[in-house]
Amino acid sequence: MINFQYIRTTTSKAAVDSLGKDKTAKFIAGGTNLVDLMKRGVTAPEKLIDINNVPLKQIELKGNILHIGALATNAAVAEHAVVKQRFPLLSQALNAGASAQLRNMATVGGNMMQRTRCGYFYDITMPCNKREPGTGCGAKEGYNRMHAIFGTSEACIAVHPSDMCIALAALDAQVVIMNPKGERKISFVDFHRLPGATPEKDNNLQANEMIIRVEIPLNTLAENSYYLKVRDRASYAFALVSVAAGLELKSNRIIKVRLAMGGVAHKPWRLTEAEAFLTGKDATEVNFKLASEIALKGSKSFGQNNFKLKLAPNSIIEALNQAKSKA
Ligand code: SF4
């Protein structure tokens, strides 16, 4: 590990100002991913800005919008009464992630900023375009069982590792970001990026910006929502495939549907075409299967992850059936 400067800040503005011109400076809160990255030499910030004392831990309903501060812990959000009652999809997704100890430390902002768990990214002796652009992608011809089937590029086939973010993508969340000029807001589905030719960039946060909070509009999906996570063991494992499904039903007719997948792409993968197909139709196994076939259009596997081409549509059908049966 190299030496680094460590400072603490108590306001968002001071935190953003502290970034200054130092391109390697990083915020640290729970540190549940960043410390691992530093210990393994994947990243070596010259300045760490501790933001734990910045007052961004709020979880509150303001009118029709739930505000969740960037420093609210994953555990606090998952167990919050309003989240459990009005956004059970988010609560389920958070509790499916990591372990109880990690959820007590990890923050919402940090969860959004966590890096892929591709093994080549963490092994500094191996080629990886994300860690070191231009060195190649070890996973394409190597160990790629966990890797993406949607939105891949020649440069990178890694997946985004979060569960929380899959639910937030399905719930039409917005991200509020602060920079030296003020605040800006972007749709959650536009926060993370596909790898393209620049896989080193996971998201659209600029170097001088900080996540302030996430906002989620109230919705009509609470009664019929389900987060399905398929993984190698029952806890403390990343998703092979996950599906966040929310339905608004009238009798058996689908009035509104939201679907997003994890473990399949470099960003939370929203299934907008499948949503459009299902809207207005009956919530039947046949329609769920047709929707899953629509969702798989354009998918591509890389050998060890061929099984995801079957697991993904089956998971979509199962998540929709589970969401439907919640009523
Ligand atoms: Fe690196 Fe992406 Fe290839 Fe993994 S999949 S080795 S993160 S470039």
Automatic annotation (TrEMBL):
| Pfam families in UniProt | CO_deh_flav_C (PF03450), FAD_binding_5 (PF00941)
- Cross-referenced Gene3D superfamilies: 3.30.465.10, CO dehydrogenase flavoprotein, C-terminal domain, Uridine Diphospho-n-acetylenolpyruvylglucosamine Reductase, domain 2
**Taking every annotated instance into account, which residue ranges of this chain make up the domain FAD-binding PCMH-type?**
1-221
Per UniProt, the keywords (alphabetical) are: FAD, Flavoprotein
- Tell me the GO molecular function terms: FAD binding; oxidoreductase activity
| Protein name per UniProt | Xanthine dehydrogenase YagS FAD-binding subunit
Query: Which species does this protein come from?
Result: Pedobacter metabolipauper
Q: What is the lineage of its organism?
A: Bacteria, Pseudomonadati, Bacteroidota, Sphingobacteriia, Sphingobacteriales
